[in-house]
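Sample 1 of the test manifest.
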Amino acid sequence: AQSVSQHNHHVILSEAASLELGCNYSYGGTVNLFWYVQYPGQHLQLLLKYFSGDPLVKGIKGFEAEFIKSKFSFNLRKPSVQWSDTAEYFCAVRNNFNKFYFGSGTKLNVKP
Amino acid sequence: DTGVSQNPRHKITKRGQNVTFRCDPISEHNRLYWYRQTLGQGPEFLTYFQNEAQLEKSRLLSDRFSAERPKGSFSTLEIQRTEQGDSAMYLCASSPQGSTDTQYFGPGTRLTVL
């Protein structure tokens, strides 16, 4: 069965700290990979996506993610977090049948 | 364009009642998705339409759940004979048709089954 694992359920950081959120998926075929963010009281919105090409993708607000095919991973990073990055982050995979699978999310709390 | 809208935003119902939710996608978006999200979990795929055709349906969706998109625009999700386990946030998302296009989510409908 296809699945997406986010191992960090809750992360607390101080401002300016570096961030890395783990995401691993299980699917043997071609996948597209996404990170979504949900700020408090807001809809889910796209942070970044990977379809092909350069495995290091850059998204909005200084976020980036690296696709490592051999590790089935797509970890999210940001060199220096801000208080406004406090949100819940979801990793998602789309398979070649256009079905999306989401991880359980990571709540990030950035202390000012 | 105001994005994906969902109505109602909240629904409280008694066990055994039927409920129907509506989703209005972004205009000209061919694809429409329904998800369910429970506390502490990510969105869980329920079903997907391309125009009016329902192309995928999760095995998690019991016979009590049905979705339609009759004219390829708005969609409805109906749950018959609701159970307490149906309590969740029901999310709708839409996307243009294209291999590199992504989804835009609505605010969701929160269902509480008493």
